[in-house]
Design goal:
Largest sheet: 5 strands, parallel
Number of strands: 7
Strand order of the largest sheet: 4-3-5-6-7
Strand content: 15-25%
Distance between the termini: 76 Å
Number of helices: 6
Radius of gyration: 22 Å
Helix content: 25-40%
């Protein structure tokens, strides 16, 4: 229904009301599109209310910088809103813009969509993981492509994780926490454990090659 309330000289209010009940529509009026995320949870352990975020072990002190790259503004805004209470968040609408932001300030973690115009998420990941300046940055790839072959292709580029859409926000948030906590723990151990071998601090082939060259 559409209605209007108007007062001469003051202004007008137009109100559009759309019923959300399934019973208000017949089968021909309903089109199911692909959802990119699953905002509602059915688990008793954790629940995300609109606008709330999962508590992070990095909430106190300096927050890690997470760069989110996606050509869909809706998903970009959703992930940013989910993370901003626990992390410093930067965004980019494609791989080219993402690379520019990485050059200006190295993020602590990158979340990137796979299918993007210009530089795809796979190409971006491959480029970053083969550059010694950025190879240490953890990368999570998001994709609407399912299947073992697509996942293997994503992991071959050096991505740390490969997540299919739709995804649960609390799982993505916890995955980020775990990745960054593991890196933080590794750094602390490397600083304090005199018996730790330098190669144990490497998390990818580029880092391992560099450490071996330095050691030699």
């Amino acid at each position: 229904s559409i209605g209007v309330e108007s007062i001469v000289g003051e202004g007008s209010v137009f109100r559009v009301q759309i019923p959300v009940s399934r019973n208000s529509y017949n089968d021909q009026e309903i089109v199911l599109g692909q959802t990119q995320f699953i905002p509602e949870l059915n688990t008793a352990e954790e629940t995300i209310a609109t606008g709330n975020v999962i508590d992070s072990p990095f909430a106190s002190g300096k927050s890690p910088l997470v760069l989110v790259i996606d050509d869909k503004a809706e998903l970009l805004g959703f992930i940013s809103e989910m993370l901003k209470g626990s992390f410093e968040v930067a965004t980019a609408l494609d791989g080219t813009e993402g690379l520019k932001k990485i050059e200006n300030q190295l993020p602590d973690l990158i979340i990137s969509d796979v299918m993007m115009p210009g530089i795809s998420g796979l190409d971006l990941c491959r480029k970053l993981k083969t550059d010694i300046k950025t190879s240490h940055i953890p990368i999570i790839l998001l994709t609407a492509k399912s299947g073992e072959e697509n996942e293997y292709e994503g992991l071959k580029t050096g991505a740390d994780f490969y997540i299919e859409k739709p995804f649960f926000p609390h799982i993505l948030s916890k995955m980020i926490d775990n990745i960054l906590a593991t890196r933080k723990s590794l750094i602390e151990r490397f600083r304090s454990d005199i018996n730790m071998l330098p190669t144990e601090a490497a998390t990818n082939e580029s880092d391992r090659d560099l450490i071996e060259k330095i050691t030699k």
